[in-house]
Amino acid sequence: MPLSAEDVKEVRQGDTVHSLVQLLRHRSYEEIRQRMYDSPPGSPWWAACKTELEIRNGEQMAAGALGTSRVVEKLRSSTQHFEQLAETLSEVSYQTKDLLRDTKEAGRRLELAIYVAIGVTLVQFFNLLFEIFRKH
Description:
Blueprint: H1 5-24, H2 29-38, H3 44-135
Helix pairs in contact: 1-3, 2-3
């Protein structure tokens, strides 16, 4: 099927828009926006400016998504690290609890041993006094 005059015009306009987009590639946002506002909607310059701005916005969105992905990965890594730290803290807390319980029991045994030692010392002291008074 042969191309109509309208189709040829659209192809030429498409080629023109593509060429204009290439010209705009290294221009500033301000210049592109100003040229877009100065051109009537639907014109090749307007379409080229709109296309270039959409390309740049897409690139910025892609860069933003990549940055967000990296931050999410770092957050995931940090979360895993905090979970490991929480598990370690929990284990250490249980170990400390066991040590405190053992220390409490050892303290009770030591207290009992001290009472026994005091009792034995008092018995020996009274025995010594008894022996001294018995000889006199």
